[in-house]
Structure formats: structure tokens, C-alpha cells
Amino acid sequence: MTPLEHPKRIGLVGTGSVGCGWAAIYLARGYDVIACDPSADAEQRTRAFIANSWDALRRIGFATQDRMPGDRLAFVANAAAVTAASDFVQENAPENLAVKQRIYAEIEEAAPITLVIGSSTGGIPPTQLHAQMRHPERLVVCHPFNPPHLVPLIEIIGGEKTAPEVVDWALNFFTALGKKPIRVDKEVTAFLANRLQFALLREAVHCVAEGIASPQAIENAMRYGLGPRWAVMGPLTTLTLAGGEGGMPHVLKMAPELQKWMDACGAPAMTSPDVQQKLIAAAEQITAGRSLPDWIAWRNERLVDLLRAVGPRAEQN
Q1: CA-CA distance, 79 to 68, in Å (whole number)?
Q2: Quick check: is 316 in a domain?
Q3: Coil, strand, or helix at residue 1?
Q4: How many angstroms separate the CA atoms of 317 and 310, rounded?
Q5: Bridge-partner residues for 10, per DSSP?
Q6: Phi, psi of 284 (to 5 degrees)
Q7: Neighbours of 54 (CB within 10 A)
């Protein structure tokens, strides 16, 4: 294997919502970005996204220049051209295994062993992703969270044939980028953070489907109850501190009752037409007639405010 070095030019294959976020953060951190995307308006859309995101990136300390350095972003024809001009390639294709594997074949044809390939997949195991590669040791999952230019977390997952030094390199690289990478030690469906997220989403859907509370009450329970705590500490710390000075041993004295709470959680069928209709109605109540672009802008502004207070540059751990 060629020794791993710190890249100077980042290649992006795919500039949808995830790829645009990657492009924004890489430009903000001083990298040259070479991208490709089959959409006819990809370059215009990507540049507009980055320009609109630049103030937020400045406010959270990632961008130091007053304006987006547009001359450091270039679009080329395909993944092979991206690979030929890059030191590290990030694949952001749709969640379709066959599509991703075709991209890896194109990348390997252009540069079989000279660079790391990162995948932004949200749930396809890396062992499946690299199953047809000639050099699978170079592929590692680097899964961001939406919106990727703001949310700090990156999940790093290696497959059965991913070289351990590639996983270590990815952890170090994204730490240096200013993100908060975590290593997921075992390949499981949906990785780690999505499993935690969907445990909560499953119960929220159950509460909607069963009429346990209004959609707004469900939102408020999270925003004003769980959310403030979880913004500063995770669920295991929360559970430990629930025991006061007795900590986790004291909490576990209540294990029989807590088990009843866990067992009472629902298992709604997301494929059920009735559940889907209730979720659509709930979304209409929550959005209250405002457009989704307005809500996305509101979300991003609130995330910036939160990250300035408790983000990776302000925390103690």
C-alpha cells in the first residue's frame, strides 16, 4: 500500500445534498475540491448551496475567508476525472449498491491503489460496498449527518477487508478537519447513530399512530425535555446521572420497572398505509403552512446557534 498522506485535493463523486455539504466544509477548511455529478445543473446548484452556507460556516468557525473561494471548486466529467485530480475521493451516490460499485470500478480504473475512497452511505455495510473491488483495503465508510456541513458527527466504519491503517487515517483526517468522527467497531444495519435515532423515531411514530399525544406535544417533549440534555451529554451519561450520587448501580436497582418501560415501547409498521397517512397529517400540522425551504433555513440557523454554544470547539471533552 502507498503510504497515507494528508490530502490537498478532495474529490467528490456526487453533489446532492450530502455532496454539497462536503464541498462546503472542504472549501471552508482550505482544500481544493474536484467534483462530478450527472445532473445538468449540478455545478450551479452546488455553488449556490456553498455561497448560501458560507455565513453559517463562518459563524461556527470553520470558514475564515469572508467569501466562498469559488476558484478552488472545479467540476469535471466523471469519477475517473475526479480520481485523476484528487488525493482522496468521497463517493456520495444514491443508496444503491450497484451504482456505488460501478463508481468504485471507475475509480479503481483511474487510480487502483494510490488513494483512499470514502463512502457517505448511511447504511450499506462496507463489506458489501467493497466486495467487487480489486483493492478493497482502501475503502472506508465516512458517514456524515444532515446537514453535513454543520453537524459535527462522522461515523467511520471499515469492512472485512478494509486496512486498519485506513480506518485510523480517516479518524485522524476528519478530526483534523474539525469534525467529530467515531469508530463503529461492528458492521450492523444502519450503523450506530441511525440505530439510536430510529429507536426514538420508532416510538414517535408509535405515539402518532396510537394517538398518545398530538404531533406538537411529541415535538415539544423532545425539544424542551430530552433535547437540551442530549445536546450536552449522551444517553448513557444521562442514565448514569439519573442515579444521583449513586450513579448507575442506583439506577439499576429500578431495573425491573425500567424494563417494563422498555417493553411498553411500540413497533409501528412504517409500511402501513394508515400509519403513513397519520404521519403525513402530523407533518402538515408541524410545518403549519410554511415552506420546507423556510424550515430548512430555520433549522440551519438554530443549529448554528446551538453549535456555537455546545459544539466541538466549545466543549470540554
Answers
A1: 24
A2: no
A3: coil
A4: 11
A5: 33, 88
A6: -65, -35
A7: 21
Give me the amino acid identity at 193: A
| Tens-digit pLDDT profile for residues 24-79 | 999 999 999 999 999 999 999 999 999 999 999 999 999 999 999 999 999 999 99
Residue 315 in domain: no
pLDDT digits (tens, 9 = 90+) for 166-203: 999 999 999 999 999 999 999 998 999 999 999 999 99
Task: Please tell me whether residues 126 and 221 are part of one structural domain.
Answer: no
Angle between the 292-310 and 42-59 helix axes, to the nearest 10 degrees? 40
Question: Which residues in 122-221 belong to E strands, given as ranges?
Answer: 139-144, 153-158, 180-183
For cell 466562498, the residue is 68
Q: Whole-angstrom Cα distance, residue 69 to residue 71?
A: 6
* Whole-angstrom distance, CA of residue 55 vs CA of residue 72: 18
Q: Which residue has the cell 465508510?
A: 141
Residue 192's CB is within 10 A of a number of other CB atoms, namely 17
CA dihedral 93, 99, 102, 103 (to 10 degrees): 0
3-state secondary structure of 97: helix
Close Cβ partners of 35 (under 8 Å, ≥ 6 residues apart): 11, 12, 13, 15, 19, 23, 42, 43, 46, 73, 74, 75, 76, 82
- Which domain range does residue 239 map to? 193-310
Contact 85, 5 (CB under 8 A): no
* φ/ψ of residue 48, rounded to 5: -65, -40
